[in-house]
Amino acid sequence: MASDAITRVADDIAVELTDRFWKRLCIFAARRLRDRASAEDVAQETLRRALEALREQRVENVEALPAFIFQTARNICLHYGRSARREEGALLRFRGGMQSSSGDESDPLVALVDKARREEVRAALEQMPEDDRDLLRMLYVDGLKSSDIARRLGVDPGTLRVRKHRALKRLSELIGNVSR
Amino acid sequence: MIGNSIISVDQNCRYSDDDEVLRLYVAGRLAEPAAEQFEQHLFECDRCAEEVERAMELRAVMGRRAERRVFLPVAAAAIVAAVAISLWQARPRETALTPPPLRGGSGREMVASGRLVDGVFTASWKAVRDARSYRVQIFDSIGEPVTWTETSKTTVSATIGQASRSESRYWKVQALDDDHVVIASSELLKIQTR
Question: What angle is formed at CA A129 by the lines to CA A123 and CA B185, rounded to 5 degrees?
């Protein structure tokens, strides 16, 4: 029975680790490796090592787990069949590519968003008020500075923050993601 | 969020009052080591992680180049200082009118304006020094590119179909040098259709 209980706890931790860190690990790795499949490999290996470390009590303080996972992912990326120089080149290419077009499919973070999710987000956006859509576009697609957006909309920075949070919350609700 | 979590969460997010770092990161324009510092924070902060994820999704949907709608330009070459392009009334053709990607950043800021009169949208902008040509792109309300053109002039006219006049459209212009590199850009501007 005790063994079963330990197994359940370990399973719970594995689920929580995956829920909480999977997407972050993919983002972290995709920026370096510029490849979704490689990023997912890194995420999987990182979570495996983190779980192993927890089971073996090598992570003394659970509060340090995010930092442990970050460092583990960093090390795995560095050794993922690439030299540090190649990784640096990928980062430079990433930045260079992004400057030319915000919607470029060469954007490794955009490539993490699968087709089904895009359709969900698109459907949610179509239900949103136009003002909210405009605001989200200016913030995340056009890359305008907050001060410029506030000036354009004739609001102060505090009001802009409130409007942004309201729009994001509305979007999350519409795509059924608010409880995540 | 996960209740009764074993994992601590950063309750004092230092980026909560200033999201420029987050947005630069998502756009791939945050330099090292700030980008890696932000990533370290991302592993500790659910709020930022969620916003990054949402921003990626918005960029995927609103910034994606059009693949579905394709329009045939109906140039009105007789207009000396303008290039006319039909946006919503032309017939589709097989190859997309998605513009090829450009090199260079946004560059200098361009001064541009547009007006819609009797269904004809006319955009004009101040000439940019060293610019060989200008690329004009038009987008729909969720960021799907609708059409584009390039011209050496400083004005463009576009006919907007009756059915689409109530829909929001946006446009921007970029100045290109001899090597087709972006040297200046306007902001994304709304076409007033109402």
Answer: 90
Diameter of chain A by CA atoms?
64
B80-B168-A113-B173 Cα dihedral, nearest 10 degrees: 30
CB nearest B23 (choices: A118, A143, A171): A143
- Residue that has been written with the tokens 């995010």 in this structure: A66
CA distances to A67, A90, B10, B15 from B36, in Å: 12, 14, 17, 14
- Cis status of the peptide bond prior to B33, with omega within 30 of 0: yes
Q: What is the pLDDT of residues A134-173, one digit of tens each?
A: 999 999 988 888 888 998 889 998 899 899 999 999 999 9
Q: Which of A24, A101, A138 is opposite residue B43, by nearest beta carbon?
A: A24
The secondary structure of residue A78, as a DSSP letter, is: H
Tens of pLDDT, residue by residue over A73-116, are 999 988 875 554 455 555 554 444 333 333 344 688 888 998 88
CB of B7 less than 8 A from some CB of A: yes
